[in-house]
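@channel anyone free to eyeball this complex?
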Amino acid sequence: MVDVARLAGVSLKTVSRVVNGEPHVQRAMADRVLAAVAELGFQRNHMASALRAGRASATIGLIIEELANPFYSTIAHVTAEMARDRDTLLLSASSEEDPVREEQLLRDLCSRRVDGLLVVPAGCDHSFLNSQVEMGIPVVFLDRPGTNIDADAVLLDNRGGARSGVRRLVADGHRRIGVLLDSVDVHTMRERLAGAQDALADAGIGYDGALVRDGVRDPATAAAAVADMLTQPNPPTAFLALNNRITVGAVQELWQRGSDAALVGFDDFELSHLMPRPLTVIGYDTRELARRAAQLLFARIDGDRSRPRTVVLPTELVERGLTAGRLPR
Amino acid sequence: MVDVARLAGVSLKTVSRVVNGEPHVQRAMADRVLAAVAELGFQRNHMASALRAGRASATIGLIIEELANPFYSTIAHVTAEMARDRDTLLLSASSEEDPVREEQLLRDLCSRRVDGLLVVPAGCDHSFLNSQVEMGIPVVFLDRPGTNIDADAVLLDNRGGARSGVRRLVADGHRRIGVLLDSVDVHTMRERLAGAQDALADAGIGYDGALVRDGVRDPATAAAAVADMLTQPNPPTAFLALNNRITVGAVQELWQRGSDAALVGFDDFELSHLMPRPLTVIGYDTRELARRAAQLLFARIDGDRSRPRTVVLPTELVERGLTAGRLPR
DNA sequence: CGACGGTCGGACAACGTTGTCATACTCTCT
DNA sequence: AGAGAGTATGACAACGTTGTCCGACCGTCG
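replying in thread with the prediction:
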């Protein structure tokens, strides 16, 4: 900027005024400045500008589990779009479900003075964020609530969704329903499992530990679990897969064995209607989830000081057969 | 920091030393400072720090077409992971294939003094980036080369891939092959179309404009195009879909009609092995694409001043039938 | 006892920008 | 002509941090 000022023969402040489109600069002088800017390829330093003006950094931070997962990348995309409408960019990072890493990333984002944080929490204690919130960096939790912190959250009706899925299976006459889940350490998994158990209890079906498989982290494990359960005595006649990766593995295994066991999966996914066997899923609107969270965050950034809210979005049982294919979007 | 210094009864510089772990501070004094830091919840301002120290911002910018698309989200994920190994965060934005928006975003990223840029270009002129490169912000193009700029690029062998796909169809006896593409405005599409025509020319099959459909932007359009082409006189006996969204639409339409037309799709995708009809795809390693680009960028950031390189990664024809399902990963 | 080397702490300027205020000039109106 | 209002420009400090340099203090050795 000093160079531009020198080349145009004006003061620093005049350059600043021209660059920021402030009024009260003569046309001729502005042109001289713009010419100098063009010649030197000057570009305002956004960091210095925000520092001096005490302005927001026009950045929001997003912590998710893994960017490559379609669920999270949809969230990232929607929030980035909404941010763009406010000339704000998205700084995103994956926690990989590691609480330590999550805290590191969150601290890093805070030290960069992001305007706000959108977090799909992995950790079990977010109390260290309280001081940041007090100091003006609002936080909104997504998909799972934060712990030891009173902040906004936008969640899904995981319990209700799982309950309606199992209720459907029970209505179809199933009494032995295998449940496959990632890990009870994850809040959403606990909720979904509880919902499944609600439905079983509603139907007066007792709990059978042999029908619940924990630690199913990927499609291959899911396939193996299905195979194993089907070869036990008194096997399940239906399965509930508690996330989309598990569903994919289960679909594959059931299809390859030619098994006619029923399957309900939590999470819809892009090609679910093209799977090689009928697949009923518990769906929800991922974009709406992200949209609501971003709206809440921006309201906080704009000064909303009302009490933290928790929004729970509904799920929907999408019953589909082989021929019910519809094109996405 | 002023408050911390006052509370600890030391000077600013001493606080700075403690916060940055510099040596030559007595244990007792350091403890006093740390206590004050904890009490006040002080967190170093990364922007001011980078500004003063002339240090890098520990941020890289990524411009892609659309974050919600699995291809791009994989790229984002891999680059974010590699960045994290350098304590660098990823500032990502979607161009939505809009050259104007792309330029705005790139300028914004430059004004934030990112350490480097990773770009899947949408625009047709990137000469405005030349001055930024000169001023020390390296740029690496991904998937498509930049225009009017001499910069690194990591590309796929689009032409060779399409050629091998069509060669396969020709070897199976097909002579009328329908080609579906997004837009000839996109570099990768032009290359893939050229590859298809190479293979046809190799086989001595003349060009028939009626067999090429442009402007197929989504699955629904692809399905409609397939339906239309199949109801023309002398219809194609095989299709080449030049990206994964087109492939999905084509799969769906062929399957619903019970058509036995062959189908080869460019781009592999997660559930391609579970599609309801045999699907041969032209695959490649998206993660490797991102990895190589990030490696190049970090080398530039670390001072590599050698001549810009263009890396072309191979594609692979993945021939799959209904029963050849394999689990992903 | 004086000099010396090492350790520790602080004053000050600077990074690139903008808010505040002061100044100089130009109109217009009485 | 002089007051008053508005416009155009610049000098300077400040944002939060750190690099540079200088000085104070300590112990040790000749």
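from a first look: Residues 1-2, 12-13, 16-17, 19-20, 44-45, 47-53, 55 of chain B lie near DNA strand D (CB under 10 Å from a C1').
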